[in-house]
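Minutes, project check-in
Item: structure for the 199-residue chain
Input as provided by the requester:
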Amino acid sequence: METKKEILQKYLPEEAMDKVVELIERYPCHLKIVQKRSTKHGDFKRFSDGKIQITINNDLNPYRFLLTLVHEYAHLVTFQEHKRVKPHGLEWKSNFKLLMLPFLSPDVFPEEILKLLARYLMNPRASSDADMNLSLAFRNYDRFTDKTLIFEIPDRSRFQYRNKTFIKGKKRRTRYECVEVFTHRKYIFHPHAEVELIN
């Protein structure tokens, strides 16, 4: 049977391994690596019996996997210290920054990500995808995908998303308003939504 370290080696930058093992041993919980979810990279759950579970998607590149793992452990530490507070409030932000510090090194992250990550951590948001530059830098290290990000395709393009066909509309502040072809209903898409362009 594989050890935690042997399992995690498949998903993390090699230089981060020992520090990650220290982190998960210091804050024990049920850590699960799960199939890709389109709405999130990871999550933190507390069950009614007191058990705590952290899940991380198995399709993330090593750098995004590491950031997501530390993000979720920051929720665990914040819960242990404060119980109920805002999920991504000041307490979580403070713990996230502290837990990320040992990993902010060119030995762990490529230079292009490291600079953007340092800026993002000054005031981290609920999702690293909210920082477009950081999200694009991470994407350079993703495994091959035939998907395109919605902001990359021209207006009025047709695309598929979850077995539905849409026409890309105008940007409304931070998101794109798109129309589903068959029902004519309007949907709002995050700029980084992965879609399949129809030629």
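Outcome recorded: Helices lie at 4-8, 17-26, 62-82, 90-100, 111-120, 132-139.
No further action items on this chain.
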